[in-house]
């Protein structure tokens, strides 16, 4: 008998410090009007290192919520997939740190995946594969990012876009008699677009030097217009692909949970797909782009608000630096 996968529960956490567009306009040449019109973002939350709001701290709090909802204990988790490009430290991986914070003593498998904004979709599909093959039972998938450390807060082209936050999902086998399942998915990467969004320095090729830091070249760099074009094209084509793979119609999709990078990207994609915006989950106004965390955070809020319900067909659709991309269709 094929094992199906159910998203058992979700959780989220954002740092306390909310930074509005007006706050940013005090230090850089921008305005609330420009940011809202071009991106849809009104505020974002930024971690305070003194309050221990690092990626694994946020993940710890979000996971406790999800475990509570799922009726599980930390030791019921037998795999952690931690999607992040902003790990607490380079070694060990964030999943291992989270394992100890949660008090998990069962030696569960722990891995980080660096897939940028597509991280949660990749993680969910990996969880599905491990569960379907019986290699794992309850898999915790985390998207947690502290992009505020990688953003140049003097560069108005980029700093307005990003925020910190975490969203998690606990996946497990679908109990008998229930209909939850992953219906179809596609994952991909177009490495030729890797220069559209990158951070050259700080790795093996170019370790950080005082000169690089002085020139402020160690921060993330992005070609916004190029990213915008690729994003809309990719999101729309992946959505069509998973719908076709599942053998359903676009009208059968109850909710689209897209990566939250820019409201104009979300709206353009919806238009290309001819999906009305009232079927699209949007929370970019409150949190900005939190990379791997946007989809699980949006998913979580939509459940809490009573929008997404059990049995609904959900499309998760993401793209990110790499350029990685992926979509998943599931019956929640
Ligand atoms: C970054 C982004 C918001 C820029 O919007 P845009 O409409 O393309 O704006 P442009 O880059 O063409 O800039 C237009 C003007 O606004 C200015 N500008 C840029 N940032 C500004 C800001 N924060 N406030 C005010 N003006 C700003 C530019 O300097 C430019 O001025 P100029 O014409 O005098 O040179 C948009 O390209 C975007 O969201 N891209 C995708 C980002 C993305 O997908 N990231 C995902 C990563 S997963």
Features:
2 domains, Peroxisomal Thiolase, Chain A, domain 1, four-stranded mixed beta sheet, 23% strand, 332 residues, five-stranded mixed beta sheet
Task: Please provide the count of β strands.
Answer: 13
Largest sheet, in brief, is: 5 strands, mixed
Q: Overall 3D geometry?
A: globular
**Low-confidence parts lasting 5 or more residues at pLDDT below 50?**
none
Alpha plus pi helix count: 10
| N-to-C series of helices and strands | EEHHEHEHEHEEEEHEHEHHHEE
Count of domain modules: 2
Q: What is the rounded Rg?
A: 19 Å
The first-level CATH class of the largest domain is given as: Alpha Beta
The separation of the N and C termini measures 20 Å
Q: Indicate the CATH architecture of the largest domain.
A: 3-Layer(aba) Sandwich
Name given to the CATH homologous superfamily of the largest domain: Thiolase/Chalcone synthase
In CATH terms, what is the fold-level topology of the largest domain? Peroxisomal Thiolase, Chain A, domain 1
The bound ligands are: coenzyme A
Classification by helices and strands: alpha/beta
Amount of beta strand: 15-25%
Give the neighbour order of strands across the main sheet.
1-7-6-4-5
Q: What is the residue-mean pLDDT, rounded to a whole number? A: 97
Q: What is the percent of helical residues?
A: 25-40%
């Amino acid at each position: 008998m094929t094992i199906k996968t159910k998203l058992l529960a979700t959780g989220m956490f954002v740092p306390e410090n909310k930074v509005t567009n007006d706050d940013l306009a005090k230090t850089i040449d921008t305005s609330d009007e420009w940011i809202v019109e071009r991106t849809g973002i009104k505020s974002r939350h930024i971690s305070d290192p003194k309050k221990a709001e690092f990626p694994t701290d946020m993940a710890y709090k979000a996971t406790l919520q999800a475990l509570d909802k799922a009726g599980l204990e930390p030791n019921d988790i037998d795999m952690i997939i931690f999607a992040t490009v902003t790990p607490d430290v380079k070694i060990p991986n964030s999943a291992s740190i989270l394992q100890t914070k949660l008090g998990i003593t069962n030696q569960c498998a722990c891995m980080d995946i660096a897939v940028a904004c597509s991280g949660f979709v990749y993680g969910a599909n990996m969880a599905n594969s491990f569960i379907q093959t019986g290699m794992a039972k309850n898999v915790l998938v985390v998207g947690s990012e502290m992009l505020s450390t990688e953003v140049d807060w003097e560069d108005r082209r980029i700093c307005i876009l990003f925020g910190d936050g975490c969203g998690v999902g606990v996946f497990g086998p679908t109990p008998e008699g229930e209909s939850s399942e992953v219906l179809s998915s596609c994952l991909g990467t177009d490495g030729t677009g890797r220069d559209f969004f990158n951070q050259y320095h700080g790795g093996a090729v170019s370790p950080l030097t005082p000169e690089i830091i002085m020139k402020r070249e160690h921060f993330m760099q992005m070609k916004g217009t190029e990213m915008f074009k690729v994003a809309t094209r990719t999101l729309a084509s992946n959505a069509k692909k998973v719908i076709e793979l599942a053998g359903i119609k676009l009208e059968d999709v109850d909710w689209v949970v897209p990566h939250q990078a820019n409201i104009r990207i979300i709206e353009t994609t919806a238009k290309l797909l001819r999906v009305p915006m009232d079927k699209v989950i949007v929370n970019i106004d409150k949190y900005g782009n939190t990379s791997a965390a946007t989809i699980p955070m949006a998913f979580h809020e939509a459940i809490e608000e009573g929008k997404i319900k059990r049995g609904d067909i959900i499309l998760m659709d993401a793209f990110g630096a790499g350029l990685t991309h992926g979509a998943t269709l599931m019956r929640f």
